[in-house]
Design goal:
3 helices; single chain; 12-stranded antiparallel sheet
């Protein structure tokens, strides 16, 4: 097989893999995380690359006086699914899965009543993002929307490989595909899937005495 034909075959494989990407990554009722980056194919066409996981592990930690809390979120690297097995293996190698099998986020301490709201709330949640043995302090912009039985939590952390101290991946030295310096992390979470969080989101009732 000539090198030119090899490039065409690999290029078509990537294009077929991208065809399933929908305008909306998640439904409102989903509980998941995703990443988005972009590849320039054969130095001509720019295509989006998306990987998703629904394997989200979340816990709440309170301080000794129970007036502050942290949220811990972890995602197994092996659960990220882009629709292409080989690409997912490359992502796992890129994120050093053997030594660092999880992506984690731990929020800073939050006041017990800091997320109380009636219908909608937008708030930046600061915390520590960890993957591939590296740690980054980030501000995650989140939107909270109240539903009947749970709170829908969405947000996009817009970043780049450069900001996260990573070299952009390349395919065949950049001749087939060159990854652009963009890496966004998207969350679409349900409060009822995070033990203890729903109670913290409910508005606190203030009792008053009449007389």
């Amino acid at each position: 097989m000539s090198i030119e034909l090899l490039f065409v075959v690999i290029g078509l494989t990537f294009i077929i893999g991208f065809a399933h990407i929908a305008d909306s990554l998640f439904e409102d009722t989903d509980h998941g995380l995703a990443y988005i980056t972009e590849k320039k194919m054969f130095m001509l066409t720019t295509l989006s690359v998306t990987g998703k996981s629904y394997d989200i592990h979340s816990t709440i930690e309170f301080n000794e006086s129970s007036d502050q809390f942290k949220v811990h979120v972890s995602v197994p690297v092996e659960s990220l699914d882009s629709g292409m097995i080989e690409r997912d293996k490359s992502v796992q190698d890129f994120l050093q899965i053997a030594d660092h099998p999880k992506i984690t986020f731990t929020s800073d301490w939050l006041a017990y009543d800091s997320l109380n709201f009636d219908t909608h709330l937008s708030k930046n949640i600061s915390g520590l993002l960890c993957f591939a043995g590296k740690q980054f302090q980030v501000d995650f912009p989140l939107h909270f929307i109240r539903h009947d039985n749970f709170t829908h939590i969405t947000g996009v952390l817009e970043s780049t490989f450069t900001k996260l101290d990573m070299a952009c991946p390349r395919v065949v030295g950049g001749l087939v595909a060159d990854v652009k310096d963009r890496l966004d992390i998207i969350v679409n979470l349900r409060s009822d899937k995070i033990d203890g969080l729903e109670e913290l989101l409910l508005p606190k009732k203030v009792e008053t005495e009449l007389g």
